[in-house]
Design the sequence.
């Protein structure tokens, strides 16, 4: 269990205290199977293990792992519309009349009632953890919508969870452009092999995407001299983690390098012990990286009150 992307929120020390009741709060919001006439359901599932008896949280030190689960009916709009068109055409042929908007809407509702119980169900899982010591909510997604949906589930379970988006004091785009243009990277940070450069003057401005590219190359520098800025930048932290950092401070393509994964070993008593070791390693490494992001970009933790 290693995250592939990282979206971040922050919360205050007082909120961290309230998270002590997380396990109890989630018990009332366990994922239930989607009903015959429902399109979807959301709830919490065990991060480790399966079944009704498995815990909905898993903690190592100050970090608590939770998993938001979902079940969604797969009923493509094209299928519904084709069926609806056939019904409308049949009425026109057999009764010699046109189907009005209100009747069409009722026919569509009837179709959904008929088709939903037979639709396939897609399961989804989104892992996250709260670091109560440092005030981070860390979600394994690069999608702001998915992150907000998971945060909504936590808020519903807890009644209140005032975690807020990052509010950097240093402009990420300006700072990363300086790193790339002047090779002015902080200690422990090195350039990766990809970036996305854009003209910030216009949404329709030119975009240059580099992959598997030497970012010190003259062609990259030329884009910067022409006014483009860094919107995404590939980086390597302490020769242990590679990732792509966006100007939204979402960490994409998060990956441990071999020196880290080799520390895990391969002999575990069971799957739960392996999951525990992986979660401990993930949180320890991310604690170091998030501490540096906080330092480089000025990411204040919300105060109580």
Sequence:
């Amino acid at each position: 269990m290693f995250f592939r992307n990282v979206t971040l929120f922050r919360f205050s020390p007082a909120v961290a205290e309230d998270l002590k009741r997380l396990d109890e709060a989630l018990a009332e919001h366990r994922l239930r199977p989607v009903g015959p006439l429902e399109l979807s359901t959301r709830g919490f599932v065990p991060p480790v293990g399966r079944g009704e008896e498995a815990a909905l949280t898993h903690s190592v030190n100050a970090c608590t792992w939770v998993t938001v689960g979902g079940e969604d009916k797969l009923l493509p709009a094209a299928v519904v519309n084709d069926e609806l068109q056939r019904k409308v055409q049949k009425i026109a042929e057999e009764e010699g009349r046109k189907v009005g908007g209100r009747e069409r809407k009722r026919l569509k509702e009837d179709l959904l009632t008929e088709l939903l119980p037979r639709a396939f169900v897609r399961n989804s899982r989104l892992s996250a953890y709260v670091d109560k010591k440092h005030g981070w909510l860390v979600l394994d997604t690069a999608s702001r919508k998915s992150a907000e949906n998971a945060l909504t589930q936590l808020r519903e379970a807890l009644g209140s969870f005032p975690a807020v988006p990052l509010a950097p004091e240093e402009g990420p785009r300006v700072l990363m452009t300086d790193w790339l243009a002047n090779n002015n990277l902080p200690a422990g940070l090195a350039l990766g092999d990809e970036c996305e450069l854009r003209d910030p003057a216009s949404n329709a401005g030119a975009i240059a995407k580099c992959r598997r590219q030497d970012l010190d190359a003259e062609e990259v520098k030329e884009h910067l001299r022409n006014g483009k800025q860094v919107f995404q930048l590939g980086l390597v932290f302490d020769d242990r983690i590679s990732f792509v950092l966006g100007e939204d401070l979402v960490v994409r393509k998060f990956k441990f390098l071999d020196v880290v994964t080799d520390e895990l070993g391969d002999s575990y008593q069971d799957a739960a012990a392996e999951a525990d070791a992986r979660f401990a390693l993930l949180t320890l490494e991310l604690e170091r990286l998030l501490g540096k992001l906080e330092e480089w970009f000025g990411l204040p933790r919300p105060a109580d009150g």
About this structure: The first helix runs from residue 13 to 18. The chain has three domains: 7-71+122-165, 77-117, 172-297. The chain has a mean pLDDT of 90.
